[in-house]
Specification:
Two copies of one chain form a homodimer. Chain A has helices at 13-33, 64-69, 83-93, 103-119, 136-143, 158-170, 174-184, 192-195, 198-212, 231-239, 302-321, 362-372, 402-414, and strands at residues 2-9, 35-43, 60-61, 73-76, 97-100, 124-125, 149-155, 222-223, 242-252, 258-268, 280-287, 291-298, 347-356, 377-382, 391-397, 400-401, 423-427. The first copy, chain A, is of the alpha/beta class and 430 residues long. The model of chain A has no long low-confidence stretch (mean pLDDT 96). At the A-B interface, helix 1, helix 5, strand 12 and helix 11 of A face helix 1, helix 5, strand 12 and helix 11 of B.
Chain lengths: 430, 430
């Protein structure tokens, strides 16, 4: 039986999970695949600390280059976009295939890495870079490859979904829940990457690139995070039959123009995606033949991420055994869209919360401004029992163009009767 | 660019969908994969009837053998286990790879077909045989290949799920909904294959085989359908916080023994699987590393099934282009379990509905019988406001062995106070 040597670079949480999996499941994987995976070594700058996995001492090394040289497949799990990039290029330049979970690196330097892989006859697989253990990259590149992709909606960041789930269930505001999540290890001390939407954006641009045949990077993405979500809006959304989720959104319209964006959105509570709670991730893909599909699972964590990394290792090992490296290139350019729409040019439904002084005529004035911008209202609620100086008006709109909506909001915010900036969330009818 | 010739045998619903997809998406697929798929022909005994897809006349033929000879990949979509088998063997014997959606044939003759494929260097792919457009076979064989599979729960038959959804939502009994489903084309005139659980069983045995490395066929499966589900039980289940779904169930316990079975089961309403309604399918897979995952989508229909067939065609085409047919064998034997448990040896929680005459002491007698068989009760409800001659007792049990449960039920049914056979459903804590 062919033996494939695996070198892991980065003995952190995920590295420890991958090592544990390979040590525990080598025989099972051989039974399933006909290929024996052998752990060649684990490189890290710190090889003393206990990672809770029983690895023979001689497998540990601080010399990642040496480990690359004696491996068939190199697993990059150190993260970041500098040393990780150098190490991956070293591996590829030496014809070693690479598995990585590094979404930030891929989003930024994917094309350069893919070109190196092709040049040197090596492979890069990156299933773990999006939605952890969920095999969504395989689904897009293979399982749904016969579909034009109409829409993708992803809950792609467990930290944000955890915070929103707890805010909604416990009726607490963003800040205290974030603090608790940090104490529990569900959020980083520097939480910006997660809660400002950038992590979701890294994942979203990878999914969009696979769907539409161009490696987009970060530039075309409109990105908003969850800091601006208040308990007030979660509650009003709930009353209206919606939940608020941070979504990666990718859409193609009938003119073949596409949108790629990340922001909180209201989705109906009866949508399956609305039931994805806590740290779980899910990706809803609508293809022109398959219709609606959804892929659900753990988006992070030692074991779930290891599951995705090991599935990539198995894919490469099968290619090595069958002597067809490059059978499935890391990425194949082939443009399947017309233009990328700027956020201002997109059409959306909106949830607006306007805080007003309850004086006669204010509703008429706001309605008139919206009407002048061709924004029609699908629902209008004024809550009773509030102070007359600060009344909440909730307005749900029909489809409207973002730039007209913004212009209308600007006018509304100038009114003397309006006491705060208008809160705006897009509504996605999934 | 390499061109791969596709021959479709069977111009029914799915055949028409596959033809439409290949004609519509040939360029898109070439952009994604670097392989050009060309429709070589469509064989059927009836090539006159309009299938609602605009196929050039010269592609249609009644000579399936001739079509096989001029194809690189043969798509078998005629169904049944006789002619389909002959045609697939003809294709394989001539080194042509095969895509099929024929779960009944695979369940019955899978090993023979796989052996022929291996002997002649051809491939068989069968993604469309389980859960329609959902790429669940790919997930099990590839995306989750690094996991020991602990549990699989599948809603695998759209007809049954549609009937149960409507019974629950509309409060109507099984028979009128079945009749309506037949009129709407959601159920066959001869509905037994679907509603008696056999279709679900064909799919379940395929999933179990892939998870545990033995082609099980139908013999080890315990199969029950949905005919015995009454509105009464759906309502009581609902009051208790459960829905009833027809599930394909595959489990492995800590001793590595496995269970493979198909039957209606109560699942908690807050489980994601409980929200899978209408004709949709979903498969929940729990792996030891990935944890819980769920795969959701359309389980049948022209377009969704075509999506799965075309993804298989693309997989084979990639192998042909990379010159590695056989890279992923149709099935690889490699036993990953100890024994298969008979249903009597399994442990389950149960929902029991006992219809009794409301005389003093009856509850004590029933409880005593259950207690004597080591069956402990987790919930006991007697509904008020019924006729005293026919009172419903609902009993939910803790884990109990099936054979002890059956013995207890047998005793209970002998009691003078018990007026009907006890209704029994297993409860699955997903």
């Amino acid at each position: 039986m062919k033996e494939i040597k695996i070198g892991i670079i980065g003995f952190g949480t995920v590295g420890a999970g991958v090592a544990a999996n390979l040590l525990e499941h080598s025989e099972m994987i051989a039974a399933r695949t006909g290929v024996k995976l052998a752990l060649a070594g684990i490189a890290d700058i710190d090889i003393k600390r206990d990672r809770g996995v029983n690895v023979p001492k001689w497998l540990l090394t601080t010399d990642s280059t040496e480990l690359i040289m004696k491996s068939d497949i190199v697993v990059e799990l150190i993260g970041g976009t500098t040393i990780a990039k150098t190490l991956i290029l070293t591996a590829l330049n030496n014809g070693k295939s690479v598995v990585t979970a590094n979404k930030a690196l891929l989003a930024k330097h994917g094309e350069e890495l893919f070109a190196a892989a092709e040049k040197f006859g090596a492979e890069i697989f990156y299933e773990a870079s999006v939605a952890g253990g969920i095999p969504i990259i395989k689904a897009l590149r293979e399982g749904l490859a016969g579909n034009r992709i109409n829409k993708i909606y992803g809950i792609l960041n467990g930290t944000c979904n955890y915070i929103l789930t707890r805010m909604e269930r416990e009726g607490l505001d963003f800040e205290p829940i974030l603090e608790d999540a940090q104490n529990l290890g569900y959020a980083e001390a520097e939480p910006s990457l997660d809660i400002d939407g950038f992590d979701t954006a890294h994942k979203t641009t990878i999914l969009a690139s696979l769907a539409y045949g161009k490696w987009f990077g970060m530039d075309p993405l409109h990105v908003e995070g969850i800091r601006g979500i208040s308990l007030t809006d979660l509650r009003y959304a709930d009353e209206l039959g919606y939940r608020i989720k941070l979504l990666g959104i990718i859409k193609q319209n009938d003119d073949k123009d596409i949108e790629i964006r990340v922001h909180p959105a209201l989705i109906r509570k009866d949508a399956l995606l609305a039931d994805v709670s806590e740290v779980f991730n899910a990706v809803m893909v609508n293809g022109d033949y398959v219709g609606d599909t959804m892929f659900y699972g753990r988006g992070a964590g030692r074991e779930a991420t290891a599951s995705a990394v090991v599935s990539d290792i198995i894919d490469i090992a099968r290619n090595l055994a069958a002597k067809c490296p490059g059978r499935l290139p890391a990425f194949r350019a082939g443009k399947l869209y017309r233009n990328i729409l700027a956020i201002d040019d997109t059409f959306n439904r909106y949830y607006l919360r306007v805080q007003v002084k309850d004086v006669p005529g204010v509703i008429a004035k706001i309605s008139a401004v919206l009407g002048n911008k061709e924004i029609s209202i699908s629902s209008f609620i004024q809550k009773e029992g509030q102070s007359q100086d600060n009344v909440s008006l909730m307005i749900l709109t029909h489809q409207a163009q973002e730039k007209l909506l913004k212009a209308a909001i600007h006018e509304i915010e100038q009114m003397d009767e309006v006491s705060e900036d208008v809160k705006i969330f897009r509504i996605e009818d999934i």
